[in-house]
Amino acid sequence: MRHAFGTTFDVDGVYLNTPSIGVPPRPVVDAVSAAVTAWGRAETSAPQFDGAVAAARGAFAQLAGVPESSVALGTTVSGLLGLVAASLPAGSRVLTADREFTSVTFPFAAAGHEVMEVPLDELPERTRAADVVAVSVVASADGALVDLEALRAEVGPDTLVVLDATQSLGWLPADLSWADVVVAGCYKWLLAPRGAAWMALSERLAERVTPVQSGWYAGGWDAIYGLPLRLHPDARRFDLSPVWLAQVGAAVALPWIASLDAATVRDHAVGLANRVRRGLDLPPGESAIVAVRHHGAADRLGVAGVRCAVRGGAARLGFHLHNTEADADAVLEALA
């Protein structure tokens, strides 16, 4: 058990796999457990979850720096971006980074658009040749950060910008409000159960998107039977029916994360990552994710009980709220 940032985490051992699955704090676990218990006792009804949906949506908007009215609810990043991809003219040119996470690229490729991959550091200067730029704020594979300031400065007025913040929201404070799309899943750095994702849309893009996935939740309780089509006037018209237990957890996790001092969280996470970088004679970085390419690193970490993932042949380590200097030192000891 660990105490950090005013809460408790039931973490045993060295867990550095937040980029794959985040570890929820005890209040999130308790809220979801209580909801499951109530479900098992037949003590639940659908309207009881509306408050959780609203709380999570509002906290996502706060974290992303966007109006709450611009936020649509989904279940996965790829599902939400599928709506965007389907709204584009046929054969649109979509610029992305090499080795981009496929939940970002596959929806555009599957829709028949021309998806062009370029090195991440070259992406801002290449935006003029694209109709859409779709990229992760922080790369899943190795934690590399896109240069948001350069991207914003270089992108043309007619080019749409799609930012996947799944690997950044929760530890990296950044101005994302200028993008046409800000999308993120909940189960990594946002520490909620898998099954919830949100997407903020700019006004100019929202006007072009057809809510082809809309069901009753996109219209609300007055739209559960019969025609005509009647949907919410704001981005809720793109909502999917929520995964209730995921929303229960998100309604606790996201407001709590949004209440923390974002700079302090970043300094904590990046500071631990840089402690490992220094110990391994790697240059300092600005990411909470460290890709360790030392020979046999993943095997040695596994033997030492350090939980992480392997991406592109490197051991990928992610430092978040529950991690400590002792965790970073355990990595260095295992790789000494």
TrEMBL record:
Domain Aminotransferase class V: 127-288
Keyword Transferase (UniProt): yes
Alphabetical list of InterPro entries matching this protein: Aminotrans_V_dom, PyrdxlP-dep_Trfase, PyrdxlP-dep_Trfase_major, PyrdxlP-dep_Trfase_small
Keywords annotated in UniProt: Aminotransferase, Transferase
Domain of life: Bacteria
GO MF entries: transaminase activity
Protein's name in the database: Aminotransferase class V-fold PLP-dependent enzyme
